[in-house]
Design a protein that fits this description.
By secondary structure, the protein is an alpha/beta fold. It has helices at 39-48, 67-72, 82-97, 147-163, 196-218, 238-241, 243-262, 286-291, 304-312, 323-327, 331-337; strands at 11-13, 16-18, 22-24, 55-62, 101-107, 168-173, 223-227, 266-270, 295-299, 318-321. Strands 3-4-5-6-7-8-9-10 form an eight-stranded parallel β-barrel, surrounded by five helices. A two-stranded antiparallel sheet has the order 1-2. The chain is globular, with a radius of gyration of 19 Å. Bound molecules: flavin mononucleotide. Flavin mononucleotide binds next to strand 4 and helix 10. One of its GO terms (biological process) is fatty acid biosynthetic process.
Amino acid sequence: MKTSIPLLTPYKMGEFELSHRVVLAPLTRQRSPGGVPQPQHAAVYYSQRATAGGFLISEATLVSDTAAAREYFGDVPGIWAPEHVDSWRPVVDAVHAKGAVFFCQLWHVPRRRRQEEKIMQQVSPQMSFDGRREELSSPRRVAAVDAPGVVECFRAAARNAVDAGFDGVEILGANAYFVSSSNAGAEDDDETGGGGIESSRSRIRFATEVISAVVGEVGAHRVGIRLDQFSSSTSGDLAAAGAGAEEEEDLALEIVERLNGYGVLYCHMIEPRVAGRRLGLSRRLAPFREAFGGTFIASGGYRREEGDRAVGEGYADLVAFGRLFLANPDLPRRFELDAPLNDCDKATFYGGGDPAVGYTDYPFLAS
Ligand SMILES: Cc1cc2nc3c(=O)[nH]c(=O)nc-3n(C[C@H](O)[C@H](O)[C@H](O)COP(=O)(O)O)c2cc1C
């Protein structure tokens, strides 16, 4: 693509030569019965969104089999067993056939989560992604004794992902999932999470162990991480959110600084505004962008104009699009032509009926 549109300019992310900066954000689709991706649908879905030199991040993919994951998140894919590796392989091949780079998002669901925490569409513990207020409890701890086992699950899953052909992995540390920097308020202190300063130290230690294990297994050039830091600041307004939010922000900043020590390829962060009313480009990620030495990806509520501004002004290297990319499989082309965009259909975000509906049936621009 020859263009002056910032989002459509090339970018070198480590060893990957990207031809544009429009990234597919991770999107859970719940269309993997028994945890096994269905190549006949998933390969079509991902390859529809693949372009030569594009960058795709998979839906959150479980690193281990926990009861909570099975109970609360039906039909999400895994990457811990040989059958998962075998089923992902043709999906990855289909994406590579189009010339795109494909990372697998690694996700762990703590063994004990409260029933009311089950919604996946949330982007923070307090707020669903479309801005509805939810009365959600804080993430539950994972017993200290589990921590080494979970680290090992991340390590093995990263190896499996690379064996399946993925170009790398993204550790899901956002949305209050386990490695999150934004677990403030959890009730129990232990090795892996919980409230208060002490447990913040534990969370940093645990996150560091996961990052270290995954980097040691597949190499830092194949590892990204997704973080958020504004879970208690649903409006993006730190003053209103109080001291807890500042602590969270400090915690996230500390994790970002540690990533540099490992040479992690990219840091992917979610804008606070997605958790509340539309605030415009908040620049709230700027301190993280400055602190991190590698590729910085911003996401959450972006449209073309703001994405162009973010890249043009150096606020982000890449911008990940969720709902827009879901509804517009040819999103980079639509941006190039400034073409109208399809709306997404919330009713079919997650699986249930015909797997193709709301998955592989969003229309492309007429050529
Ligand atoms: C249907 C749906 C599924 C999502 N699944 C995930 C996921 O698996 N992992 C993740 O980190 N974020 C997930 N998110 C959050 C998105 O990656 C993204 O941050 C959010 O939609 C805001 O970006 P957008 O305004 O471009 O849609 C999901 C969002 C939606 C709408």
